[in-house]
Design brief:
Shape: elongated
Structural class: mainly alpha
Number of strands: 0
Helix content: over 70%
Oligomer: single chain
Largest sheet: none
Order of helices and strands: HHH
Number of helices: 3
Length: 74
């Protein structure tokens, strides 16, 4: 369970959206949190890959090279 306090202007926007769409404020808060979490997880994963690339622990390969190895090149 999570309880949050929102500034009045954001609370009003959320209330207005919920009324206009017939959805609950909780629905929109949950959706916003899920989207933010997905974005943050993607960001942290990308940062880890960049660190591994920078340290030489991982390598990248051009798309053309991968396609050629897989026999997908035109």
């Amino acid at each position: 369970m999570l309880a949050i306090r929102l500034p009045e202007d954001i609370e009003a926007r959320l209330e207005n959206l919920a009324k206009r769409t017939g959805r609950s404020k909780t629905f929109y808060a949950r959706e916003a949190i899920l989207e933010y979490l997905e974005d943050m997880e993607d960001l942290y994963l990308a940062e880890q890959v960049v660190r591994r690339l920078d340290s030489g622990e991982e390598q990248s390969h051009p798309l053309e090279e991968v396609e050629a190895r897989l026999g997908l090149a035109d």
